[in-house]
Write a structure and sequence with these properties.
Belongs to the PHP hydrolase family. HisK subfamily. Helix content is 41%, strand content 16%. It is α/β, with parallel strands linked by helices. The longest helix has 21 residues, at 58-78.
C-alpha cells in the first residue's frame, strides 16, 4: 500500500509537468493506496512571484488554486474505487500575514490538511536556485548561522500558528549549502536548539515528519531530512510519513527504492498513512509497518520492491 503525502502537477505548478489526472493515473498504475494532491498555496503580492511567473499576477495564482481544488475534487470522485485521494496544500511562509492567507484557504476550500513548508527566508526563496539562496545569505551579511536560525524561526512561526499535519522537507534550507555552511549548520548550538524546539513542538501537537525522496533527484545521497535530524526526531518519539514530492507523473514513486533503504538504515519501522474521516475530523492517520507500504508497489519500471 504505497503512499505519498505531498505532490504537484504541471497543470497547477509551472516548474512541474503533466496534468493532475495523469499524476493520479500513474499513482494507480504503480499500486498506490493513498495519494495526496498538495499544490502550492497562492501568494498575494507581486514581489513574491517566482521568475517563471513573471507573466502572471497574484490574482492568476488565486484563480489557479480555485481551479486546482475543483479539479482535485472531481478526480477524487472519479477514481474513488481505485485509490484514496486527499486534497491539501503546501504552505508558504514569506511574511507574518502569510498565516492569515493559509487559514482562509483551509476554511474556504475545506482542505483535508496542510503540508507545512518554508521556502523563503526574509522573503527570499531558498530552494528555487543557488543564486537566490546566496541572495538570502547576502541579506544576512553572509552569516550562515543567522540564515539557518532565521529559517528555523520562520518554520517555528508557521508550526505554532497552523500546526500542519505533515511537516515537509524539514531541512530544505540545506539544499544549496556548501561544505562551509554545513559545518556551521552541524556545529552551531543555537541552530540545533532551534531545531530541537521545532521538533518537540511538532511531536507535542501530533504532527508527522515527512521522509521526502525528492532530495535524491536533487543530488543528495539521503532523503529529507538528513540522518542527524531523523535521529533527533526519533529521540523525541517523532512519527514519519512518506512522500515523493513528485512534480508530474514522471516523478511519482521516483526513488522509492532508495527511500526504502533510507528507512531501513535509519531504523524507521512504521509510517503514518493519512485518511479522510467522515466523523467530523478532517484527516487522521494510522501507523502502518513499513513492510506493508511496499506490498502492492509496482514502481516506475514495473518491478516491485
Amino acid at each position: 500500500m504505497p503512499i505519498s503525502s505531498h505532490s504537484h502537477s504541471g497543470q497547477f505548478c509551472l516548474h512541474a509537468q503533466g496534468t493532475l489526472e495523469q499524476v493520479i493515473q500513474e499513482a494507480i498504475r504503480q499500486g498506490f493506496h493513498t495519494f495526496s494532491f498538495t499544490e502550492h498555496c497562492p501568494r498575494k503580492y507581486a514581489e513574491d512571484l517566482y521568475p517563471e511567473e513573471s507573466h502572471l499576477t497574484p490574482q492568476d495564482l488565486f484563480n489557479t488554486f480555485d481551479d486546482y481544488v475543483r479539479t482535485a475534487k472531481s478526480l477524487r470522485e472519479k477514481y474513488a474505487d481505485k485509490i484514496q485521494i486527499l486534497i491539501g496544500s503546501e504552505t508558504e511562509y514569506i511574511r507574518p500575514d502569510s498565516i492569515d492567507l493559509l487559514r482562509d484557504l483551509v476554511v474556504k476550500y475545506n482542505l483535508d490538511y496542510l503540508v507545512g513548508s518554508v521556502h523563503h527566508v526574509n522573503t527570499i526563496p531558498i530552494d528555487f536556485s543557488s543564486e537566490l539562496w546566496h541572495k538570502a545569505l547576502e541579506h544576512v551579511d553572509g552569516d550562515y548561522e543567522k540564515l539557518f536560525l532565521d529559517y528555523f524561526n520562520h518554520q517555528f512561526t508557521l508550526l505554532t500558528a497552523l500546526q500542519p499535519l505533515v511537516v515537509a522537507h524539514f531541512d530544505l534550507i540545506c539544499l544549496y549549502a556548501n561544505e562551509e555552511a554545513m559545518q556551521v549548520f552541524m556545529s552551531s548550538t543555537k541552530v540545533w536548539e532551534a531545531i530541537e524546539r521545532n521538533i518537540q513542538y511538532v511531536v507535542n501537537y501530533g504532527g508527522v515528519f515527512e521522509i521526502n525522496t525528492s532530495a535524491f533527484r536533487k543530488g543528495w545521497s539521503v532523503a529529507y531530512p538528513k540522518p542527524q535530524l531523523v535521529k533527533l526526531m526519533q529521540k523525541h518519539n517523532g512519527r514519519f510519513t512518506l512522500s515523493d514530492d513528485s512534480h508530474g507523473p514522471h516523478q511519482v514513486g521516483l526513488n522509492y527504492h532508495r527511500g526504502k533503504a533510507y528507512l531501513e538504515d535509519e531504523g524507521i519501522h512504521t509510517l503514518a498513512v493519512l485518511s479522510r474521516s467522515s466523523e467530523g475530523i478532517r484527516t487522521t492517520f494510522q501507523m502502518i509497518p513499513v513492510s506493508q507500504i511496499w506490498s502492492t508497489f509496482v514502481g516506475k519500471n514495473g518491478v516491485a520492491l
